[in-house]
Amino acid sequence: MTTCDDPPPFPPFGVHRSVRVYDSSWCALRRDEVILPSGDLQEYHVLELADAAAVVPLLEDGRVVLVGQYRYPHGHTQWEVPAGRIEAGEDPVRAAWRECREETGYAPARITPLPGFYPTGGISAHYAHLFIGHDCRYEGPATPEPSEQLVTRVFTRGELETLLDEGRFADGFTALALLYWLRTFSRDSSI
């Protein structure tokens, strides 16, 4: 198997000045003036968001629970894995378990990590932790937040593969989590 090393790291930019433009409990925006390697200054806008956790909820029979969720910013409802922000001081695994239970009504018996990613690396250090929730069992109705409009549906692996092949998952958290899950656990392996 061929491996590929990460690129060599560049030294970080120096910060000449940093100004908070906006602050809320949901997000923040700052405007930094960074010092480029040439010594020139350049303006850089950074969006600050809490890290997130997303989980692929696997039932005991290998099927997957997804939520159909309305997203206000773009006005569409789409199939997604349960996901949400990690609260201050909260462990990412605990956040994944909590989001799964709140959004689907199912709780995982155990959770294993998948590779994570930076959804908007060009403007934010926001990081998405991805997980598989194994042996999920129904514990009761979902308890979404007031702004969450959700329905749940159970999918087979084949249905998810078809939806991925057709490019039907517009949510990056969902597409990457499902692709990592499918690549990590082959058809013949124990889920």
Output the CATH topology of the largest domain: Nucleoside Triphosphate Pyrophosphohydrolase
What is the count of helical runs?
A: 3
Helix content: 10-25%
First and last CA, distance: 23 Å
**Major sheet attributes:** 5 strands, mixed
Going by CATH, the architecture of the largest domain would be: Alpha-Beta Complex
Uncertain spans, ≥5 residues at pLDDT below 50?
A: none
Q: What portion of residues belong to β-strands?
A: 35-45%
Molecular shape: globular
CATH class of the largest domain: Alpha Beta
- Give the mean pLDDT: 94
Structural class by helix and strand composition: alpha+beta
For the CA atoms, what is the radius of gyration?
19 Å
Number of domains: 2
Structure keywords:
alpha+beta, Nucleoside Triphosphate Pyrophosphohydrolase, 2 domains, three-stranded antiparallel β-sheet, 3 helices, 11 strands, globular
Tell me the layout of helices and strands:
Layout: E1 14-23, E2 28-35, E3 41-48, E4 52-59, E5 64-71, E6 76-80, E7 83-85, H1 92-104, E8 106-107, E9 110-117, E10 128-138, E11 150-155, H2 157-165, H3 172-184
Parallel strand pairs: 4-10
Antiparallel strand pairs: 1-2, 2-3, 4-7, 5-6, 5-11, 8-10, 9-10
Overview of the molecule:
Helix 2 (157-165) packs across helix 3. The chain is α+β, with helices and mostly antiparallel strands and 191 residues long. The protein folds into two domains: 14-48, no CATH class; 52-184, Nucleoside Triphosphate Pyrophosphohydrolase, CATH 3.90.79.10. It has three helices and eleven strands, in the order βββββββαββββαα. 18% of the residues lie in helices and 40% in strands. The strands form three sheets. Strands 4, 7, 8, 9 and 10 form a five-stranded mixed beta sheet that branches. It has a three-stranded antiparallel beta sheet with strand order 1-2-3, with no helix packed on it. It is globular and about 60 Å long.
